[in-house]
Structure formats: C-alpha cells, structure tokens
C-alpha cells in the first residue's frame, strides 16, 4: 500500500529533481524528451493541441518550447534545437503551425516596402547586435521575413529542414502538424483539397495576390 507519506516524499523528490534538472545535462531531460517549435499566435494552444503540459512544474515540464512567427525554421530555432537535442537529452521534435496564420496574411515584399518607407535600410540591418557577423546578402530581407504561400507546404518544408540539418542528430524523430483554428483540432499537413476545405491555409485567402519570395518552394 502506498501511503500519503510515501506520495509526499516522492512528490518532494520529483520537485527537487525538476528544479535542478539542468545540473544533470542529458540525464535531466524534460519529461517527454521533447522540443516543440510552434507559431507564436495566441490562437495556437500548444498544450491543448499536443496533449502535453509544457511549463507547469511537477507533473508538467513535458517539453522545451520555442515559439516564433510562423513556427518556422530560423537560425535561432536551429540553435535552440541543436542545444536541446545534443546536450539536454531531447529525442523528438514536434513542429506545430496553424491555419489563418498571420504569416499568410501579407506579401513579404510589401512588408519590406513599409519598413523602407519608415526610413529603415533593410540591406544594412544588424539582425543580432551581439553578432554583427551574422548577415544577409543584399536583397534577402524579404525572404528572411519568412511569409508563407501555403501553411501545409511550409510545415512539410520545415520538417525536412530539421531532418536534414547537420546540427540535429539523425536519430531525432521529427514530425509536423497543423492546428486548425476554425475547428480546434490537429491534423497532419496535407495538400488534399477535401481535408483543407473550410480552413484558411493559403495566402490568397487573405487577398495576397503575389507569390512570396522563394523560401518554401
Ligand atoms: Zn501563426
């Protein structure tokens, strides 16, 4: 029989481990050995979509979670995934993007134009002021923004980028998923028109007529 005393002792020991797990390196991994990459959009509830608890203390702590605009591959997403996969015991990467993403809602060239009209020279930007050697070639800024034509295509390309990246160990399992804001459910990325029906997955749904700068196609 497990007494309450036993349970409390276990809970305290679990908490101590959780609170100091970084001292154990790869042995102090999060509960699910998992790194999640998700769009920053507040309509994408990562815990609900994946059935995990990312950031509650004991009983949660299932994953390291990285969010950016789109949930796309970027140099910092690669940096974070490299650290968690090589040094903190992460064995799986789950990528979640979503329908109606803001990254579908405008053309990147138009966004760059707005910045230029504000007087910003987009060909001479310190992307990271602490790392001035990190540079874009002139003319690459719009591509860097990472706007999408089609969220399912982008999701599949993002999975591929992590699978093939030399900094991500080959035995890490990588999968990508789409959260449907309209139906509040998760599905695999697909190009099947029937499965995409009634959801906004392409930029033309937002009145964007020009193709984005070539990044995902
Ligand atoms: Zn989004």
TrEMBL record:
Cofactor list: Zn(2+)
Domain of life assignment: Bacteria
InterPro entries, per database record: Carbonic_anhydrase, Carbonic_anhydrase_sf
Residues that bind Zn(2+): 39, 41, 98, 101
Keywords: Metal-binding, Zinc
Transmembrane stretches, start-end: none
Bound cofactor: record note: Binds 1 zinc ion per subunit.
Database matches in SUPFAM superfamilies: beta-carbonic anhydrase, cab
GO molecular function terms attached to this record: carbonate dehydratase activity; zinc ion binding
Pfam families linked: Pro_CA (PF00484)
UniProt family annotation: Belongs to the beta-class carbonic anhydrase family.
The protein's name: Carbonic anhydrase
Species the sequence originates in: Methylotuvimicrobium alcaliphilum (strain DSM 19304 / NCIMB 14124 / VKM B-2133 / 20Z) (Methylomicrobium alcaliphilum)
């Amino acid at each position: 029989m497990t007494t309450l005393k036993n349970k409390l002792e276990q809970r305290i020991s679990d908490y101590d481990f959780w609170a100091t797990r970084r001292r154990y390196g790869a042995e102090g991994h999060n509960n699910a050995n998992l790194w999640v990459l998700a769009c920053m959009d507040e309509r994408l509830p990562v815990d609900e979509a994946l059935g995990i608890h990312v950031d509650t203390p004991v009983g949660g702590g299932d994953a390291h979670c990285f969010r950016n605009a789109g949930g796309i591959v970027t140099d910092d997403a690669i940096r974070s995934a490299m650290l968690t996969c090589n040094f903190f015991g992460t064995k799986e990467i789950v990528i979640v993007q979503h329908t109606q993403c803001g990254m579908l809602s405008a053309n990147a060239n138009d966004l760059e134009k707005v910045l230029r009209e504000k007087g910003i020279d987009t060909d001479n930007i310190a992307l990271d002021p602490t790392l001035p050697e990190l540079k874009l070639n002139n003319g690459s800024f719009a591509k860097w923004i990472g706007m999408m034509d089609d969220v399912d295509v982008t999701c599949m390309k993002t999975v591929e980028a992590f699978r093939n990246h030399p900094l991500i160990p080959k035995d890490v399992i990588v999968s990508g998923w789409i959260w449907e804001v309209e139906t509040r459910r998760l599905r695999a990325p697909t190009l099947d028109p029937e499965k995409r029906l009634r959801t906004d997955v392409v930029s033309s749904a937002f009145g964007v007529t020009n193709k984005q700068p070539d990044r995902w196609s």
